[in-house]
Amino acid sequence: MPDSKTYTGGCHCGQVRFECTSDLSMVTACNCSICTKKGLHFTFLDPKSFQLRAGEENLKEYLFNKHAIHHQLCVDCGVDVFARGKKPDGSDVVALNVSCIDGIELSKLNMTPVDGRSM
């Protein structure tokens, strides 16, 4: 199993900034409508491993379908930085848009296919 690292990142304009700890062992390649249209790739974090460092006042929430996932978008640049939701067991989870991590190269990550279109 890969070692966890601390990452920083944020939206395109820099108003929203975060820090997180993850091993990036599971990054989604989901085929649901929002992930497909926005090119989202999420890793899932315990909320204790995610800290919003700046820009809480710059976030707008987007809900769709079952209103179960609370997508957090920067109001200035529109980037979907992260989402909050619940795991199947009911515990809280943060879904971090891996593309928002500083210096990340998606082509070097192993993607896990997820059939979100059928959920």
From TrEMBL:
<dbReference type="InterPro" id="IPR006913">
    <property type="entry name" value="CENP-V/GFA"/>
</dbReference>
<keyword id="KW-0479">Metal-binding</keyword>
<dbReference type="InterPro" id="IPR052355">
    <property type="entry name" value="CENP-V-like"/>
</dbReference>
<comment type="similarity">
    <text>Belongs to the Gfa family.</text>
</comment>
<dbReference type="Pfam" id="PF04828">
    <property type="entry name" value="GFA"/>
</dbReference>
<keyword id="KW-0862">Zinc</keyword>
<feature type="domain" description="CENP-V/GFA">
    <location>
        <begin position="7"/>
        <end position="115"/>
    </location>
</feature>
<dbReference type="InterPro" id="IPR011057">
    <property type="entry name" value="Mss4-like_sf"/>
</dbReference>
<protein>
    <recommendedName>
        <fullName>CENP-V/GFA domain-containing protein</fullName>
    </recommendedName>
</protein>
